[in-house]
Each structure stands twice: as structure tokens, then as C-alpha cells.
Amino acid sequence: MDEFNGRWEQRYHPLRDEWVIVAAHRQNRPWRGEMAAPNREAIPPYQPDCTLCPGNQRVGGAQNPPYDGVFVFDNDHPCVGANAPTDLPTPTGIYRNRPADGIARVICYSPRHDLTLAELAPIEVENLMGVWQQQMVDLGKRPFINHVLIFENKGEAVGVSNPHPHGQIYATNFVFKTIETEVKASQRHWQETGRVLFQDILAAELADGARVVCENKTAVAFIPYFGRYAYELFVAPKATHPTVATLSPAEVADFAAILQEVTIRLDNLWQMPFPYVMPLHQAPTDDGDYRPFHFHIEFHPPLRKPNLLKYLAGPEIGGGNFLSDTVPEEKAAELRGVAKIHYKQEIGD
């Protein structure tokens, strides 16, 4: 099977009408997962063997600069590549494949190894969003890139290989299935009603209020009426933008404040670094008409209770529909009831 290792390839799934990325070389990427620490002192701000800390050597051999803010570099173990092999073997029968073209990058949020998004200074969160905007513009304008997926995986529970605060970017020659589905739903609603679908969702959530966790002038966070995970959170600007790139400086400041507040509330819920998958939902970059698409961030935390995962089993994996074990209104009330000051700051005080 060595002939298949390291291949950047997409294989089409005809029953689901979607592409599966094959990147077997990532199986050998380094693992530095660490258990959640109850306080900041348990993890030093610099780790000499961390491949993401300033000045250290990465797995690909390159050395990180002594960075003091947000640091972006090309992933040493990418799932897609600009030089993806084109001489792929022709599959049998109805199957088809194609190169997994694209660019994969890593975004280090901070030079400090011991912080999370919730613990950054407010200006650092704004700076991170500025980098998201820059990356979206840079990658989105490239002719072979049709979508830019920015995301963060946080915590051992979701398989993070290095606890240094960081996110990733997959800029690809295809549109990820979830975004493709949201685009179709948004365009259909636009054609049928003349309204932006997400604006109607916002209107319903703000009118009800029971699932709103926090809001300010231009941004809001809520657990949606249709939430699947116990603490699934949406963070959205109140005005419609297809991507993060077009938010104004004032909107960036408001959005960053809400984004950080919800991460603090999640950590404070059980006094622990709260694990989650956090993708940015952005419109494709293939020159289509995406005026009805509303940029937002979603949090998908895997925990229902401390150390109790929401397992995806028969209905979810086999049937494709979630069974929610909790009520969104109750979970939103829980998050509203916790402090907005991070528990580690209170411990330090």
C-alpha cells in the first residue's frame, strides 16, 4: 500500500453526492495532545518541544520565526496541495477521482503555548479576525480556489494533535458539502421569498430571545432552535456578509467581543478548557452570486456533560439525522448564567 501514501486525492461518493479527501500521509503527523489543565500555571507559556512555539523547528524542518502576534504558515502535513499529483490511477466502474488541489495553512493565535481563544486579549482576537480577512482575500482570489474553510479544533476530545492555540485553513478546488448545502438553501429561500434565509433565522431568534446567549450592536450569539449538539453556538454579524472579508472595522470589533465572550462562557461552564470544532461558514469563491449567503461561525462542542461525549451513532452516522439529547433553550440559559470573566483570571486574582 506504500504506493498510495502521501497522495492528495479526492474520491467521489456517488450515494452522497460529495467528495472524500484521501490524505493517508497525515496518519503519521506528530501528536502532542495534552489533557485539559485546571489553571494556567499547569502549562508553561513556552514549550521547547512544541512545533508551533516561536523559534522552534516544525516537523517539515522549517524554523518558526520569533513571532509575537498571529503567525500563519503553510501546513507541513496538508490534506490538499498546490502540487497535488495528477497522474492518478483510473478507478474501476462508476468511480471517479481527481487531484485534491488547494492550499492548507496553520494560524497560530499567539506565541504563548498556554492560552486559548478565550484567554487572549480583546485586541488579539480582533487581530486574529483581521488575519482571517487577509487570508480570505488572498486565497479566495486565486483561480484554482473555489472555497476557503477556516476552522479551529480545540481539545483532546476532538483529536487535536497540538494544544498550542491555533486554527487551520483549507483552501480547496471544491466546495465543502455543508457549505454547498447552505448555499442551495439560501439561494432557494432568496428566490422564493426575496429574503436572506439567515436574516429570517436571526429575526426569529432575536424575537424569541430564549436561545440568545449574548449580543451587542452588530453581532449576536445564540443556540439555534434546531441545535443538534448540547452547546452548539452560532456567532453571526447582524448584517449580511458572504464572507468575513467584508466586515467593517466596527463590525470586526463587535464580532470579536461576542466571539470571545462565548468561548469564555463555555470554559466557565465547567471550569475547564471547553473542547469544540469551530468552522467559519463562508460563501464559495468561484465567482458565483452569493448575495443571500450570510457569514457566521458555528461551535460544535462534543460534550453533553463534563467528560461525557455526544456520541454519533446509528441515527447520526447511519441515518444522517441528529437526535438531540438536550433542549436548546435550557442550554442557552445555562451559558447566560455563567460569568463573563474567565475562571482562570478569577483563580489568579
Essential attributes:
globular; three-stranded antiparallel sheet; HIT family, subunit A; alpha+beta; 2 domains; single chain; 349 residues
Topology:
Blueprint: E1 9-13, E2 18-22, E3 71-74, E4 97-99, E5 102-108, H1 122-140, E6 147-154, E7 166-172, H2 177-193, H3 197-208, E8 212-215, E9 219-222, E10 233-237, H4 249-270, E11 276-281, E12 296-299, E13 303-305, E14 308-309, H5 314-319, H6 328-336, H7 343-348
Antiparallel strand pairs: 1-2, 1-4, 3-5, 5-7, 6-7, 6-11, 8-9, 9-10, 10-12, 11-12, 13-14
Helix pairs in contact: 1-4
Task: Characterize the structure shown.
The chain is of the alpha+beta class and 349 residues long. It folds into two domains: 2-176, HIT-like (HIT family, subunit A, 2-Layer Sandwich); 178-348, HIT family, subunit A (2-Layer Sandwich), CATH 3.30.428.10. The chain is built from seven helices and 14 strands. The strands form three sheets. The protein has a nine-stranded antiparallel sheet with strand order 3-5-7-6-11-12-10-9-8, sandwiched between helices. Strands 2-1-4 form a three-stranded antiparallel sheet, with no helix packed on it. A two-stranded antiparallel sheet has the order 13-14. Helix 1 crosses helix 4. 38% of the residues are buried. Residues 1-6, 25-29 and 31-41 have low confidence and may be disordered.
